[in-house]
Amino acid sequence: MAACSRGLVARPFDLTARGAAHWPCPAPRRRAIRCCCRAQQEPRRRLSKAAAAAPERTEEWRIDGNKPAAAARGRRRASLTAMPSLPFPSPRSRRQWKQQNFYPRCTPRGPAPQSRDTPPKRDTGIASEKEWGINLLDEAVKESGTNEDGSTWYRESGDDRGDNGYRCRWARMGGQSHDGTTEWKETPSLTFHYKSLTLGAEKSGKNGEGDSWWEKWKEVLYQDEWSNLARIERSAEKQAKSGAENAGWYEKWWEKYDAKGWTEKGAHKYGRLNEQSWWERWGEHYDGRGFVLKWTDKWAETDLGTKWGDKWEEKFFAGIGSRQGETWHVSPGGDRWSRTWGEEHFGNGKVHKYGKSTTGERWDLVVDEETYYEAEPHYGWADVVGDSTQLLSIQPVERPPGVYPTIDFSASSPAPPSDDPPGIPPPPLE
Questions:
Q1: Contacts (Cβ under 8 Å, ≥6 apart) of 227
Q2: Quick one: which of 383, 50, 97, 375 has its CA closest to 236?
Q3: Residue 423 burial by CB count (10 A; 0-12/13-18/19+): exposed, middle or buried?
Q4: DSSP secondary structure string, 404-423?
Q5: Alpha helix positions (H), 290-417
Q6: What is the DSSP code (8-state) at residue 301?
Q7: What is the pTM of this model?
Q8: Closest alpha carbon to 53 in 419, 307, 361
Q9: What is the Cα–Cα distance from 155 to 149, expressed in whole angstroms?
Q10: Rounded to the nearest 10 degrees, how much is the dihedral formed by the CA atoms of 200, 259, 323, 123?
Q11: Cα 283 from Cα 297, distance rounded (Å)
Q12: Where is the stretch described as Disordered (predicted)?
């Protein structure tokens, strides 16, 4: 949704779709807001207006359809990504890596599990339960076999139990080719605890070309022990490495929601292609009462010493807020160019715009301009509830007698952007 400083028009917000009534829904907003995006136009994260004037670069920053949430059909996302082509193709369309054959692989008397010899897709965000297709068995299974082509496979499942109602149903399956050049593993699990329910899975593998990958997905449902406020958290980590070149990428995505509309989303990304490396971080925070904070920071560098990047941040509440950003470039010799800009939105149709650059550019003026921003996430509490039907259908574990809630006085708040590069070392493949 988007807010306009000059007018507020009601827009329906469906809280009844896909079983949202089973959980507390966000409190009604005191005023309606209207979306600034056209019905068939993809909402985009805002870029610095000065970005087009940046010095010539060896790589192009591109905007592509991004999926930070497993949105329903028709919902869209966009993010900033520095992405040269990798030696192994990674289509960037919405979650095209569905596991349509996962259910029969979990059936003990079904066919042998099938190998997947391709890495995960980039910029596909966090997949939904349906796309992972996790179907854990109630009975313990342990079996293995050899296919006609000499490849081998195994499959096993179990049920672990612990203190305070802890229980974990898990499965492991995998296989490899006859010569060992192709290998894959998958480990879905469901963890019960009186504090939370967790549904997750982990995958890894390699193919005959030497490419390797690792992927992890998790969805957690828990309820605040004092307020009884329901919360859902989703996360995903993905990594792929090329066997032919010094190339690879890593992504970490997370989303957090509560029943009052508080939402936090973010991603860290890293990639390398031979002599060039790039990074990207972005975050979104909605407090459920109208305040919104968004930011993006992306940069790249080459082994020769060339560096460039772009970052921006926006904060709004009740039509009043600010935007600011910077585009910069550093040459191999250490020469630095930058352009900074800012906007102050007063909520009355007036916007103060200012900026400067290291080449002497400077501007400072007040213009008549409407203020638009996304006051609510395009994918929020009602959506994540509708897409988490499997997790919500699980009966929670009762709190054991004599176990009491722990006191935590820390407040949830968005982490401010940092000028330091994030520590995103790709996790090692087993």
A1: none
A2: 97
A3: exposed
A4: -PPP--PPP-PPPP-SSPP-
A5: 381-386, 389-392
A6: E
A7: 0.69
A8: 361
A9: 18
A10: 20
A11: 9
A12: 65-126, 402-430
Spatial contact of 240 and 253, defined as CB atoms under 8 Å apart: no
Rounded to whole angstroms, the Cα distance separating 382 from 355 reads 40
Rg of the chain on CA atoms, in Å:
24
The residues spanned by each domain of the chain are 3-392
Q: Give backbone dihedrals phi and psi of 308, rounded to 5 degrees, phi first.
A: -155, 160
- Taking CA atoms, 349 is separated from 3, 6, 49, in Å, by 12, 7, 20
In whole angstroms, give the CA distance from residue 319 to residue 373.
8
Which token pair is 16? 């009844």
Positive or negative, the CA dihedral 346, 350, 356, 362 is negative
As a whole number of angstroms, the distance between CA 138 and CA 190 comes to: 11
Using DSSP's 3-state secondary structure scheme, residue 392 falls into helix
Can you tell me the distance from the alpha carbon of 289 to that of 29, in angstroms, rounded to the nearest whole number? 7
Q: Name residue, tokens 């715009």.
A: 353
Amino acid at 200: G
Which residues are CB-neighbours of 43 under 8 A, at least 6 positions away?
A: 37, 76, 77, 78, 374, 378
Q: Which two tokens stand for residue 296?
A: 């993006």
Residues of the chain with pLDDT under 50: 1-109, 411-430
Instruction: Print burial letters for 217-234: b (CB count within 10 Å at least 16), e (below 16).
Output: bbbbbbbeeeeeebbbbb
Structure tokens given for 361: 């550019």
Q: What is the pLDDT of residue 70?
A: 38
Nearest to 179, CA basis, from 152, 212, 203, 213: 152
- Kindly tell me the burial class for residue 382, based on how many C-beta atoms sit within 10 Å of its own C-beta (0-12, 13-18, 19 or more): buried
